[in-house]
Design a protein that fits this description.
The chain is α+β, with helices and mostly antiparallel strands and 247 residues long. Helix content is 36%, strand content 31%. Strand 2 and strand 3 form a beta hairpin.
Length: 247
């Protein structure tokens, strides 16, 4: 049975994990432990992080048929907007009737994939944690449906607690949403309309990925399938897939 679990148990189960599901759950817990809109649920071989109406489902190996049935039942009764999970779990949920779903691609950075004749800008040229009112118009250009108040409250809170960082370069921005166990998880990559085609986003990603490599960390992103060629040019390779169930 999937039931609400305490933070210490969740932290123990997530200790040392560096997959994107663990990172998302752990970063929200680090920022919002004790807030009623952030909670964690656990069952046999499954851990579910909840942030408002968005869920992240992390499984340990493949769920049994009984385990998948419990997960599907949990989703039906808990009420949610979106649920991010691994490819296999997502495909089985789709077969169980959760047909409103979309795939995304996990990519990881490797500096050796950047052609030798192409330069990488120094990390020092990137602005870290600029005023968020300078960043939001760029994020809005890339993600038209994003809500200012929700975005600002979350990112500002996580920056103040040292959990997230926002980077800005040449009209492009990216957010480090989790940095744990040797993995740096980047999200909300966007370019202002005027900066598109200038290489700003590609240069930003290469500089960040290289900087993390120097620190012994691996940068990763989750993106739509059609964006994979862009990330390939920036030095990222496909490392897996995920599925988001929408309710």
């Amino acid at each position: 049975m999937i039931t609400k679990t305490d933070t210490k148990t969740a932290e123990r189960l997530l200790k040392g994990a560096n997959d994107i599901f663990a990172l998302k759950i752990a970063s929200n817990l680090a920022a919002y432990d004790g807030y009623d809109f952030c909670s964690v649920y656990g069952g046999k071989n499954v851990l579910i992080g909840r942030y408002y109406d968005d869920l992240v489902i992390r499984t340990k190996g493949s769920l049994t048929d009984e385990g998948l049935e419990e997960l599907s039942l949990f989703l039906r009764v808990c009420g949610f907007k979106s649920a991010l999970c691994g490819l296999e779990t997502g495909q089985r949920l789709i077969n169980d009737g959760w047909s409103n779903a979309k795939e995304s691609v996990l990519l990881k950075f490797a500096s050796q994939l950047i052609p030798e004749n192409e330069s990488i800008i120094p990390f020092e040229e990137i602005t870290a944690d600029p005023p968020l009112n300078e960043v939001f118009p760029i994020v809005k250009d890339g993600f038209p449906d994003i809500d200012h108040d929700g975005w600002y409250t979350d990112i500002n809170h996580k920056i103040r607690h040292g959990i997230a960082h926002v980077y800005l370069y040449g009209g492009a921005t990216a957010t480090l949403i989790a940095d744990m166990n040797g993995t740096a998880y980047l999200t909300l990559l966007a370019s202002a309309k005027a900066a598109r085609g200038t290489g700003a986003a590609k240069n930003l990603l290469r500089a960040l990925g290289t900087q993390f490599e120097k620190q012994g960390k691996e940068a990763c992103v989750l993106c739509r399938e059609e964006l994979v060629p862009f990330y390939n040019k920036a030095g990222f390779y496909v490392a897996g897939k995920a599925i988001t169930i929408e309710n």
